[in-house]
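quick one if you have a minute, typing this from the bus. below you get a single protein, a line of residues and a line of whole numbers that encode the local backbone shape. could you go over both lines and see whether the tokens make sense for that sequence. anything you notice is useful, everything is just below.
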Amino acid sequence: MKLYCQPLLNHTKNLFLSTGFLLVLSNCASNSQQSLYDEMGGQPVIETLVDHFILEIANDNRVLPRFMDSNVNRFREKMIEHMCVLADGPCVYTGDDMVRVHAGMDINSAEFYAIVENLISAMDKTGIALGPQNQMLERMAPLRTEVIGI
């Protein structure tokens, strides 16, 4: 009896371990296929993020003067669209390109990085996890050359 049980136990153990391993792999695969938009929480979270971002800007004297003549409702609408597109969401950005938006503003590096700080703070307040935060910042980083000194 011992001769037959041992191979059966080994087979069962291997089957159990293999199944567990496949479940872990399938979970990893499904997570890697999830868009940044979904990882962040979709449209409601992006809207909340932009609302927090606007409040961060409003409370930051380093950058607030740049926004004094801005149409806040339009800024909010276009920022939501822009972040949604950057996150691979189902949105279409209908605003002007970044060069046109920032032309003639002569934004410097200090102001740019202040805005980045505001965005990070807004993402923290929105409850966005660090991984999706880093992905969003990575996607926004190339815009630096379209904003500074234009």
Observations:
- The radius of gyration is 23 Å.
- Residues 14-30 have pLDDT under 50 and may be disordered.
- DSSP finds eight helices and no strands in the chain.
- The domain at 35-146 is CATH 1.10.490.10 (Globin-like).
